[in-house]
Amino acid sequence: MSWKNYINGFRTYLLLERSLSENSVEAYIRDVKKLADYQSINNSTKTPKDLTSKDISTFIQWIAKFGISANSQARLLSGIKSFYKYLILEEVINHDPTLLIEGPKKGLKLPETLSTDEINDLIEGIDLSHPQGQRNKAIIETLYGCGLRVSELINLKMTNWYRKDGFIKVVGKGDKERLVPIGKLTEKVLALYVDEVRVHQKINKGFEDFVFLNRRGNKLSRVMVFTIIKELAEKTGLKKNISPHTFRHSFATELIQRGADLRAVQEMLGHESINTTQLYTHIDREFLRESIISHHPRS
Length: 299
What we know:
The structure is a single chain. By secondary structure, the protein is mainly α. The chain folds into two domains: 3-89, Tyrosine recombinase, N-terminal domain (DNA polymerase, domain 1, Orthogonal Bundle); 116-293, Intergrase catalytic core (hpI Integrase, Chain A). 56% of the residues lie in helices and 4% in strands. The protein contains twelve helices and three strands; from the N terminus they run αααααααβββααααα. The chain has a three-stranded antiparallel beta sheet. β2 (167-171) and β3 form a beta hairpin. The protein is elongated, with a radius of gyration of 26 Å.
């Protein structure tokens, strides 16, 4: 069979068995056609079932020479991998040559960060006369002041808040525990919510130990935290696209800019690798550059 026959079969599979849209199908087909065209350019008579892992890796390397972005390369490889999964299903081949081929590293892109003023504006925009106002203020302060992930926030326990020592114990990814220090302002806002608001709330059985509760006395959900933040951003006129994670990134960025030790920041954020924490040094370098350039005698 020729490349054309295999590609036509793949098209039918995507349309009928995977029920993909025409646009999605065409995107997959373009990916496979690029591989077929590469064989033609190199006068290769190999069909899809003849290609080895080395052949496909060489093709990906060839594509990269044209300056195609890592994201586009990864998407192209994903299309080719889907094609070979189809060939496996059809028993055209019994070994997938793409199985061990890894896509290019796309890098980690940091989301929006907020300045201290922007965070203060958000907090000041909270209506404290609202029944959940003080709770929402404590949520924002804890997300930012402790650099928590949203999952860590909603699972924070009363028994893991060591008030006398100024720490909270956080259960992060992979159930790994870490101690996070609380700043005085964050501690004050959190204590106000717990001692003045939460203490008067009716709490359902099984949720007594959770710090943040919804109005029905159950554990707060991830969706509700996202909603609180989105509505607050809209209310205060913030144009940035933010989420709970934005506060974590903003916190880390601020720490680095103020000269905090990288290892200490890694420990506090619960990063498994120091490489993740080092991403914030890129922001710091840009901050330093702008500070210098704006006052540079030769600027």
